[in-house]
């Protein structure tokens, strides 16, 4: 299975080389596509160097400014489709997500439409250095979204996901309007409405190694207000059945 990993970046110069190196060492048929929002710390130039050092395996999209997570992923998805990807991964560029868990997620994708890296299933965990308030905020955000949207998933805000190409292509991507991490909630809800099959793969979520978190109060407020709007917006989405056949052993 040919996998393309989409890495949206903004000021990830300290993380990107090591992360790309770790991804390329995995025992997977894998490419990395960096989508950089004109990072002032030189992330884009570092990405160019990684492209030159890994011809055919690393690609970069340079954007003129900080355009956000939603548009970065949507542009990355379309480029991955055009490049022949059979599966597309979403993950953070700051080492919050362990690249090695992609192996287990790719195995899970044999029998589902999307594999989620989950902090809140048995075997999953969050950084032990997180203060109590942050753990509580994360847990509450997941409970809030799950309850309003009727999602059976334990971690609806996870940014670590692996999609089968045909599942992602059939998503109404142009209708998804949320920004920030609510974009991830909206994607999960639409997939559930379309009757997609999920696998929840346990992961450990680490604090970023270097740099500054992109989470803001504005993003959190938007999430609280727009979760109800998400439920309202997709009343017309009709469930479909993707005939997921077991994939050959890798």
Describe this structure in words.
There is one protein chain. With 250 residues, the protein is of the alpha/beta class. It has a single domain (2-233), classed as Spore Coat Polysaccharide Biosynthesis Protein SpsA, Chain A (Alpha-Beta Complex). The protein has helices spanning 16-24, 43-53, 69-82, 101-108, 132-149, 165-169, 182-193, 217-233; strands at residues 2-9, 29-36, 58-62, 87-90, 114-118, 125-126, 161-164, 198-202, 204-205. The strands form 2 sheets. It has a 7-stranded mixed β-sheet with strand order 3-2-1-4-7-5-8, with helices on both faces. A two-stranded parallel ribbon has the order 6-9. α5 packs parallel to α8 and α7 packs parallel to α8. The radius of gyration is 17 Å and the shape is globular. Residues 242-250 have low confidence and may be disordered.
């Amino acid at each position: 299975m040919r996998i393309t990993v989409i890495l949206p970046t903004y000021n990830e110069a300290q993380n990107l080389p090591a992360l790309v190196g770790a991804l390329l060492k995995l025992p997977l048929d894998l490419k990395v596509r960096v989508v950089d929002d004109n990072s002032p710390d030189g992330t884009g130039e570092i990405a160019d160097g990684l492209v030159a050092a890994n011809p055919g395996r690393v690609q970069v999209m340079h954007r003129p400014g900080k355009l956000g997570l939603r548009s970065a992923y949507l542009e990355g998805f379309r480029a991955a489709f055009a490049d022949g990807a059979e599966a597309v991964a979403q993950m953070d560029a700051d080492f919050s997500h362990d690249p090695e868990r992609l192996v287990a997620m790719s195995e899970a994708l044999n029998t589902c439409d999307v594999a989620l890296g989950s902090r809140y299933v048995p075997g999953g965990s969050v950084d032990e250095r997180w203060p109590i308030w942050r753990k509580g905020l994360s847990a509450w955000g997941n409970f809030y979204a799950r309850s309003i949207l009727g999602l059976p998933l334990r971690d609806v805000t996870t940014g670590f996901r692996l999609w089968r190409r045909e599942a992602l292509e059939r998503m109404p991507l142009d209708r998804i309007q949320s920004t920030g991490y609510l974009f991830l909630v909206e994607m999960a809800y639409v997939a559930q409405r379309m009757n997609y099959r999920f696998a929840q793969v346990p992961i450990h979520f680490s604090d970023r190694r270097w740099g500054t978190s992109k989470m803001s109060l504005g993003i959190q407020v938007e999430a609280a207000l727009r979760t109800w709007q998400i439920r309202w917006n997709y009343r017309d989405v009709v469930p479909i059945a993707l005939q997921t056949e077991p994939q050959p052993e890798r």
